[in-house]
Design goal:
This is DUF3225 domain-containing protein. InterPro entries: AtzH-like, NTF2-like_dom_sf. There is one protein chain. This protein has three helices and six strands. It has a six-stranded mixed sheet with strand order 2-1-6-5-4-3. The longest helix is centred in the N-terminal third of the chain and has 21 residues.
Length: 126
């Protein structure tokens, strides 16, 4: 069934917001439920291929610093089954904004992240 792009954007926005709540709450099982089994995730100093690697990493690394905030979040749909989310993120007391991108695909079980990338820009000399 073909869907209107506004429906895709609304669905992925809801999924992304639920993912973000799970991330902030450090709800590892819920976080993992948003990823496809073979998802690839590149972090600031890590990478995981597949849900098993990500599960081991998430259980070992602990939660995020408190006060996470997002800025300039963009959700773009590409047809009825693909969307890309990009956002900046930051924490209180830090001037550096990190970058986060996710590719979401509509699978039989619902919207899932198939690739994710998290990075922070290199600090510029002052």
């Amino acid at each position: 069934m073909e869907r209107d792009l506004p429906d895709v954007i609304a669905e992925v926005t809801a999924a992304f917001e639920a993912y973000e709540r799970a991330l902030v709450a450090d709800d590892v099982e819920k976080i993992l439920s948003f990823f496809a089994p073979a998802a690839v995730r590149f972090g600031i100093a890590d990478q995981q291929v597949g849900i098993e690697e990500q599960a081991r990493w998430r259980r070992a690394q602990g939660g995020l610093p408190p006060g996470r905030r997002l800025k300039d979040t963009i959700i773009a749909g590409y047809g009825a089954s693909v969307a890309v989310v990009t956002t900046l993120f930051g924490y209180p007391g830090r001037d550096v904004l990190g970058r986060q991108s996710q590719t979401w695909v509509r699978l039989p079980e619902g919207w899932r992240i198939v690739t994710a990338h998290v990075s922070e820009p290199a600090r510029q000399p002052t």
